[in-house]
Write a structure and sequence with these properties.
The chain is an alpha/beta fold. It has a single domain, classed as 3-Layer(aba) Sandwich (Glycerol-3-phosphate (1)-acyltransferase). It is built from 7 helices and 7 strands, in the order αββαβααβαβαββα. The two termini are 19 Å apart.
Length: 267
């Protein structure tokens, strides 16, 4: 592997004593008005979120607006500060990257670089009694009808390593404002983005010991199935049998697959 240049390394956030910090309050109130122009959030299950202490809140990922919708809900309705694990390229943009770091968001590397530093930063967030908001799929779903797809183990690993609750949630409705993988906004201030927050996942079987790769896969599938069940409630229909895995369909791991040619399985 080629040696990384200093410019390839991402700055990690420092967690402030106060929650929320000054930068987060300013940005949240500015973005809050923008979100209300786009849609309105309607939430069930807020009682399942702890009022204090750290936890991992994991949601399905349908459109580029999901982070705004979930952040709005956590900040204005759950009254906590959302800390996202987000793709590193966002943090390389001037001004935007500085704002994200000031708001204690965590950049994640994609491909060819260890994510030890981002995971350490995420651990620090949880150990400070804060909230990690994460999309376990790692990118927008590739399932043809928008259902949750295969998840990655990182979200569960964080909850288990830091011994905090893992709380599944589902959200649906942002696709009416911005189609999956589209950047063409269709603001609908009256349109609800519905969310349902489940009870903390029972992870007692997996806590307090070193897990095998197959056990991490097992617990991640357990979490994704719970998120799918919650999504079924919101959509009022049954999801397809089995969890969609993009690898089985020759789809690239990241990026806008709708603009890219399919890869053959095994390439």
């Amino acid at each position: 592997m080629a040696k990384k240049k200093s410019g390839d390394f991402l700055k990690m956030p420092k967690i402030h004593k106060n929650e929320p910090n000054f930068a987060t309050r300013i940005v949240a109130n500015l973005l809050g008005g923008f979100v209300r122009v786009l849609f309105r959030t309607k939430v069930e299950g807020l009682e399942n979120l702890p009022k204090t202490g750290g936890y991992v809140l994991a949601a399905n990922h349908v459109t580029y607006l999901d982070a705004l919708a979930v952040a709005y809900m956590v900040y204005f309705q759950a009254r906590r500060t959302p800390h996202f694990l987000a793709k590193g390229n966002l943090f390389k943009a001037k001004f935007v990257g500085d704002i994200l770091i000031a708001c204690e968001q965590v950049p994640v590397y994609r491909g060819g670089h260890s994510n030890r530093e981002p995971m350490d930063a995420a651990h620090a967030v949880l150990e400070a009694g804060r909230v990690i908001t994460i999309f376990p799929e790692g990118t927008l779903t590739r399932e043809p009808n928008g259902w949750p797809m295969r998840g990655k183990i990182g979200a569960l690993k964080l909850a288990l390593d830091c011994n905090v609750p893992f709380i599944p949630m589902a959200q649906w409705g942002s696709e009416q404002v911005l189609a999956t993988y589209s950047k063409k906004l269709r603001p609908k201030p009256w349109h609800p983005v519905r969310m349902i927050i489940g009870k903390p996942l029972d992870l007692d079987k997996y806590r307090g010991r070193k897990l095998t790769n197959s056990e991490f896969t097992e617990v991640t599938e357990l979490a994704m199935r719970e998120i799918i069940k919650l999504t079924e409630v919101l959509r009022g229909e049954k999801a397809p049998e089995g969890i969609f895995d993009p690898r089985d369909h020759g789809l690239a791991e990241y990026g806008n697959f709708k603009k890219e040619p399919k890869k053959q399985v095994g390439e």
